[in-house]
Amino acid sequence: MDNTEEVVALCKRRGFVYPGSEIYGGLGGIYDYGPLGVEMKNNLKKLWWSWMTVEHENIVGIDGAIITHPRVWEASGHIKSFVDPLTECKKCHHRFKADDVDGKKCPDCQGELTEPKNFNILVPTELGVIEGEKIKTYLRGEACQTIYLNFKNVANSTRVKLPFGIVQIGKAFRNEVTFGNFLFRQREFEQWDLQWFTKPEEMDQWFEYWKNARMDWYQSLFTHPENLQFYQHEKLAHYAKKAFDIRYRDREMEGIHWRQDWDLGRHGQFSGQDLSFEGIVPWIVETSGGVDRTFLFLLLDSYTKDGDRVFLKLNPKISPYKVAVFPLLANKPELVRKAQEIYKHLKLECKLATVWDDRGNIGKRYYAQDEIGTPWCVTVDFQTLEDQTVTVRDRDSAVQERLPVASLDSYFIEKLK
Ligand code: ATP
What we know:
Layout: H1 4-14, E1 17-19, E2 31-33, H2 35-53, E3 59-61, H3 71-75, H4 78-81, E4 83-88, E5 95-97, E6 117-120, E7 123-127, E8 135-139, H5 145-149, H6 151-157, E9 164-173, E10 188-198, H7 203-221, E11 228-232, E12 243-248, E13 251-260, H8 262-271, E14 283-290, H9 291-302, E15 303-306, E16 309-312, E17 323-327, H10 333-349, E18 354-356, H11 362-371, E19 376-380, H12 382-387, E20 389-394, E21 400-404, H13 408-415
Parallel strand pairs: 3-9, 17-18, 17-19
Antiparallel strand pairs: 1-2, 4-5, 4-6, 7-8, 9-10, 10-14, 11-12, 12-13, 13-14, 15-16, 19-20, 20-21
Bound molecules: adenosine-5'-triphosphate.
């Protein structure tokens, strides 16, 4: 079932994602994350970062600049190769990737198509204030280049030894020709990359390790891990021995790349600096994934309909809020007081992402929390005032149980492990 349209509407309605610059008519392929979206995206990024840097040995992070020296993109090959041959319809002037159209007819109006021309998809920018002295450069077309640029800095300023990794989460910019498809193909997006530096003789072993480890990690987050699969590329870059994608229902989410000594070799050559370490130019296994694509696929995958209920069956670690707290009736001060106490305790002392809701009736509040994927709702009712227990309602089963207020912390902390 394709639920993309419903998910896109939900994203806007509930504050996950908005079209960029919308009050001015929007900008194609540019999006802003709203209050719930930023919480969920931050949760995802924190999980990735801690999996990389805490659960693995020998991985350190950087946060590189978006604007880099123009020579970077010559060395990386993007100035020459980051081009898409495009063809234009002579009648309706729609443009298409030459690879996407068969024959010479426009898929939209059957008009005649021009010969393909090359368009570079790097986003140019200028630095400097005086005309004639401005430097033309590019917003980074892929985040990983700043890892190569800082390879020597990291090696010299930390205690790493081969094999080791450098990770980064950061923005990348591409003048994509066929943007659209919501967050799938944007012109400004975020990538999470690992560059793993190793000795050539250990390359095969590490490639296999990272390929499988990344798949396991994604599977642990998705509601339906069977929707994820490997795709093996047949057309390879000249330095690559193999390349795989991790795909969600046939759409790329992350690439696992055999980069050999190509990147450090090229930057060594173009900069004139020695980028060797421990006597060799290390080889690289790269895992390069899209934060926004993962975000989108997680929403598509968790969107669930069960009779009248619509809920996001998100892994609680990713949900924007973990717990919602309600007083059964908003006009009973004794219930509100007790519910506020619990709300503040969970939020401020337990540091759980907790939200308060006292609008409408309880059914509407459950509905609203289901729709944004909140895994547990706590309701304070009259019995609470007598015996210090509350109801805890589980999002996925819609089942309620009665628990002592004093056990809530350990109950949620245990569930989130
Ligand atoms: P595609 O073939 O879909 O254009 P790619 O092979 O060019 O992707 P890479 O350059 O390997 O992608 O980038 C690594 C990851 O960055 C991709 O797996 C994807 O998740 C993400 N990504 C790439 N382009 C975009 C984009 N335009 N919008 C959102 N995410 C993107």
